[in-house]
Amino acid sequence: MKFFAILTLFTSLLFTGAFAFVNLNNSPPPNKTLSNGAKLEWTPCWFDIPLLKTVHCAQFHPADKQIPELRMPVVVIKSRPFFRQPSPILYLSGGPGYATGLDPQDMESWWEWVAQQDWHHDLVLFDQRGTGRSEPSLKCPELIAMVRETLSQALTQHELFALAKPRIKQCYTRLRDTGIELSNYTTTASSRDVRDLMELIGGSKKWNLYGISYGTRLALAVIRDHPEKLRSVILDSVYPPEIQELLELPFLYENAFKTLFTGCQADEDCQAAFPDLEESFFNWLTQFRKNPLKLTVTDWISVEDIEVGLTDQNLADVVFFALYDSNNIGKLPAALAAAQQEDYELLIPMIEEYVYISLDPQFSEGTYWSVECHDSDSRVPKEEFTARVAQFPRVKSLVKEAWDTWYCHLWDVGDAGEEFRTPVISDIPTLFLAGTYDPITPPQWTKKVSKRFSHGYFFEFPGVGHGAVDSDECASTIARRFLKNPYQRPHHKCLNELSGPEFVTP
Fold first, then answer.
1. In angstroms, how far is the first alpha carbon of the chain from the final one?
2. 168 contacts: CB under 8 Å, gap ≥ 6
3. 3-state secondary structure of 344
4. pLDDT tens digit string along 475-490?
5. By the 8 A CB rule, do 462 and 499 touch?
6. DSSP-derived 3-state class of residue 164
């Protein structure tokens, strides 16, 4: 009995000490204000925190006198104390315009993500200007309402733009009339936000950045503007500042489709099952240009049936956006072959995903246009764009009207200038990750940028679309090894086991 009494006392003291330790760590640091006026105010979290997790929440007020009411939510997820590394990780989300996912219903995904990555660093999350829970919001419900109203109509690009144009102008005017200076929603401004946020949370600490998609462009801006704050950087699916979105559109469509069909041809079973898939796909699109199709699918947001009108343009977009998701890549050849025989069962989930992207309630259209139109050279001559389209004749019908329907003609926010669009060169240790099938930030871009970094390490994942870390366990493992020693190229046996997608065949 005496032994059990001692054991009980020891256990009690152990747990009491452990909980005391956790409680001490649950106290956030003092509020802080920088000399430029940027400040961080710690607040109670607006979501439930799992047992034994230490999480701090705050509101970040950037140094922006033209938007005094601007504030952004911040969440700091502390790593386990006995394994914690001194340098935090700051996550930079994509879009531009996508929320980081800080609503109560979204935080569960972050608990799972942190456990899966096991990176041993504190993770700092925040919603960038105009996105998610940040205030003021730059969402354009006027446009989303129009998109929902017209989904059932098989409209051409010009017809759709004619309907969208007054809604875009309405959103622009509404935001400006409320005193929002849209030219302050830029990558350059967000780069300063990142610098100040790192200073407010970490003081003199060195930081690690993890950017995905547009978040990589923001990370590259921080690398150029504020390198003194950085220990290492992970760039996943790179969107370089020198890329001009409009001019690259013809290449992106052609490259996405070519990569899919080349991958199928290189796979013995896929090639045998679908020997003429590439040629038949483009012929199929031509048919829909003349005779659009209407299908009933499920709207993931309202969970109701919704009718969708399908032209060659949005069918091409269904395939393009399906390539983002690595789980779709292996199914696409079979889905396209079946659809050409009027069997849409495999394609319908991808159409539903396309509808969700079109109606995404978390996306901030105003942020997207403000950032993209400021970053890009909005003075692209039509003749230059037309010459670019001519280089890719197979997708000409899909992109030839893009200049006439370019939203930057309507969204005046100024221009970042050529200095911003100069390629970034650095000696900061940086891990570059790319998916072979990524349609929107192809691996060619990532590889090219990596060559300008003296400590840059490039890895391509053959079965992956957009976002390698979230799609491939090997990418996550490589990132973990890189964070341990950024000055050494990470190696792992999983690299030898990588292969392309597993194509579904009859």
1. 68
2. 140, 143, 369, 407, 410, 411
3. coil
4. 999 999 999 999 999 9
5. yes
6. helix
Report the SS3 class of residue 235. strand
- Short-list 204, 173, 219, CA closest to 430: 219
97: left (phi over 0), alpha (psi -120 to 50) or beta: left
Q: Which of 1-5, 51-55, 287-291 has the lowest mean pLDDT?
A: 1-5
CA distances (Å), 199 to each of 187, 191, 205, in order? Answer: 18, 13, 8
What is the pLDDT at residue 26?
55
Count of CB atoms situated within 10 Å of the CB of 456: 21
Given this model, what pLDDT does residue 20 score?
Answer: 37
Interval 356-361 mean pLDDT: 91
Q: Cβ–Cβ contacts within 10 Å for residue 286, how many?
A: 11
* Cα distance between residue 209 and residue 123, in whole Å: 10
Token pair listed for 260? 């899919």
Please report how many Cα atoms fall inside a 13 Å half-sphere around the Cα of residue 53, on the Cβ side: 21
Q: Is the pLDDT of residue 294 over 50?
A: yes
pLDDT confidence of residue 5 = 43
- In this prediction, residue 8 has a pLDDT band, given cuts at 50, 70 and 90, of very low
Quote the CA–CA distance of 156 and 135 in Å, as a whole number.
Answer: 35
Helix (H, G, I), strand (E, B) or coil at 8: helix
* Mean of per-residue pLDDT scores for the chain: 91
Q: What whole-number distance in Å separates Cα of residue 110 and Cα of residue 35?
A: 33
- 37: region left, alpha or beta (phi > 0 left; psi from -120 to 50 alpha): left
Query: Rounded to two decimals, what is the model's pTM?
Result: 0.93
Q: Which two tokens stand for residue 134?
A: 């940040």
Which segments within 205-342 are labelled E, that is strand?
A: 207-213, 230-238, 293-299, 304-310
Most confident residue range from 69-73, 293-297, 406-410, 446-450: 446-450
Q: How far apart are CA 207 and CA 197, in angstroms?
A: 11
Is residue 88 reached through a cis peptide bond, with omega within 30 degrees of 0 on the bond before it? no
User: Are the beta carbons of 104 and 48 closer than 8 angstroms?
Assistant: yes
Catalogue all structural domains in the chain, each as residue range(s) with its CATH number: 2-137+183-205 (no CATH), 141-182+363-409 (no CATH), 207-243+419-506 (3.40.50.1820), 245-359 (no CATH)
CA angle 21–26–28, rounded 5-degree value = 130
Task: Assess contact for 79 and 109: CB atoms under 8 A.
Answer: no
Do 467 and 429 touch, CB atoms closer than 8 A? no
pLDDT digits (tens, 9 = 90+) for 316-356: 999 999 999 999 999 999 999 999 999 999 999 999 999 99
Confirm if 483 and 230 have CB atoms less than 8 A apart.
no
Taking each continuous run of H as one helix and of E as one strand, the counts in the chain are 18, 12
Kindly give, in sequence order, each residue whose CB lies less than 8 Å from that of residue 262, ignoring residues fewer than 6 positions away: none
Q: What are the phi and psi torsion angles at 25 (to 5°)? A: -75, -15
Q: Whats the size of the chain, residue-wise?
A: 506
